[in-house]
């Protein structure tokens, strides 16, 4: 059955996402061009894979790109508040500027845990670039490191969203837009 049939509404279209990703890339380029070491982009797998891929292709600086995995959701829609790191960095971030690239910040648990983890590896600054932020659901305050900055694509209403990398039970990541599923799919 066609995936589109599962989607109740689209929140951001492919064009809107692409436009915003270009804007974020320009902000990052402006902030990091004067630095003498280009940042390491670290995507939080799996949700950030499309955002990371689109973002880094717009950054004309000698950056490195890596992934890290933090699991807190299992197959459900509510964070269990205690993320594990089953897949760690390959790139050495000691003394580097790191930009953590996330699909969405929800409770803040995942980022807080990842920031501590990357800080312990000696990164000289840690920034966060998230496509979506759901401030209504924040439980954990996370602190950026050094001169790290916070880049955010869109503020997300309090829905469980899918698409453009984000899943429900590992499906829907391949939708090119971001939307909400029909209620019967979640139940
Ligand atoms: P946090 O630890 O901030 O609660 O959760 C962050 C992670 O939970 C995100 O990286 C994302 O993978 C997942 N998440 C949070 N909200 C949503 C949502 O609305 N849709 C999907 N698909 N994943 C979400
Ligand atoms: Mg994520």
Number of helices: 4
Number of strands: 9
**Secondary-structure-derived class:** alpha/beta
Low-confidence parts lasting 5 or more residues at pLDDT below 50? none
Write the H/E string, N to C. Answer: EHEHEEEHEEEEH
Distinct small-molecule ligands in the complex: guanosine-5'-monophosphate, magnesium ion
Q: Look at the structure and give the mean pLDDT.
A: 93
Strand order in space, largest sheet: 4-3-2-5-6-7
Radius of gyration: 16 Å
Shape: globular
Helix content estimate = 10-25%
Instruction: Estimate the strand proportion.
Output: 25-35%
Measured distance between first and last alpha carbons: 18 Å
Most strands sheet: 6 strands, mixed
List keywords for this structure.
single chain; 187 residues; six-stranded mixed sheet; three-stranded antiparallel sheet; globular; binds guanosine-5'-monophosphate; binds magnesium ion
Quick overview:
It catalyses: IMP + diphosphate = hypoxanthine + 5-phospho-alpha-D-ribose 1-diphosphate. With 187 residues, the chain is of the alpha/beta class.
Structural notes for this entry:
Pfam families: Pribosyltran. Keywords: Cytoplasm, Glycosyltransferase, Magnesium, Metal-binding, Nucleotide-binding, Purine salvage, Transferase. Its EC number is 2.4.2.8. This protein has 187 residues and is an alpha/beta fold. The chain has 4 helices and 9 strands. The strands form 2 sheets. Strands 4-3-2-5-6-7 form a 6-stranded mixed beta sheet, sandwiched between helices. It has a 3-stranded antiparallel beta sheet with strand order 1-9-8. Helix 1 packs across helix 2. The two termini are 18 Å apart. The chain binds guanosine-5'-monophosphate and magnesium ion. Residues 44, 47-48, 102-103 line the site of magnesium ion.
